[in-house]
Amino acid sequence: MSSRTVVTGLGFITCIGNDQAEVLDSLRGLKSGIREEVFLGNPNLTVKAVGKPLDFEVDSANWRKWKVPQDYFIDSSLKRSLSPHGIYAVCALEQALGDAGLSKEELKDGETGLYCASAGSPLLLHENLTVLRKAKGERGNPLGVLCSIAGTLNFNLGSWLGIRGTNCGFVSACTSGSHAIGYGWDDIALGRQKRAIVIGAEDATAESLLPFSAMRALSTNSDVKRASRPFDRDRDGFVGAGGATVVILEEEGFARRRGAKIYAEVAGWAQVNDGYHRASPHPEGEGLAETMRKALKAAGICPDEIDHICAHATSTPAGDKAESHAIGEVFKGCLDDISVSSPKGLTGHSLSMAGVLELAICCLMLERGFSLGNANLENVDPVCEHLRLPRKSEETVLTWILNNSSGFGGINVCNVLKRYEHR
Question: Please, what are the domains in the chain?
Fold first, then answer.
């Protein structure tokens, strides 16, 4: 493609910070955002760790009880049809627009698309269906569909922003955010849009996270700060998380003409399915390996040009092993020169949001000149020992980063980012 896609705005509502400065401080200092939670008021549950934003009160199914930090105001006419993660998304979106120097009015140009990743709100879906069933179908929330199903971000934010270009959502489990980035990139590269607003968000409530406990996928480590430990021999599952992250993509010339600050270039992406199992990755990481190869080809680079890999690595025994094997196959011969880390040791696993959050983290690494270390990595699993896994964040100039995402069904997505240089 002759056009280049660049990142011009970032917004964060996360467990490691509710703005860019806080997030940067957490990343550089490896400050965990994981905290203890008594889910459903039941102290007997073995799952006690969660990653959720501070200073928000959105766990109630009643929107009138929700509270947001004083820096934000959300009109009740919008709030009443939002989900908890919709609240997070509006606040992160306001940040990103301010960061990019954009007004809401400018987004009505027909050249701007909206790309959202979200699994919907199990909390509100349960609440609304419970009311419906108790009333035997004779009563229900008139905004119940709009606030709860997987398209809730698209319905509410597309109309609130006045989007007149693309408006689409992505529901592919833990690759949803990376899919949203990829398809936003496609629309810009193909000339369909000049700008893409990409949003990843999740509730982080008992209803959205505890079902993974029944799959034995969540960590039961009572030391919650150390529960998420990608690549560690003693990892026992992921820590669920939520919040929202917004990334604004623009065609380079479009961004430069308005004098936008540019964080990084998104140089290409790819997706490949394992075709192996509905819930487990291919043991050898075959699908992810092929995805990485195709992403490198799309970006026009060779494996030895990558400086850092932002791994999906959720801290599950099977997932980290498969990804380690895949990285070893693709980057054989140059592993000593590539740092590998997973932000999830700090952030937990934010599911649909993860790909957007981690791409935003990659942008900060490229723009600020550092590579993220691996939090809680004490004893490297022997199957991961071939990787260079720094324990601490390091000040360094990075040029190319590969960002991995994997999800249920063996879905794999990789985005490739480059430090921005005007040419």
Answer: 5-257 (3.40.47.10), 268-419 (3.40.47.10)
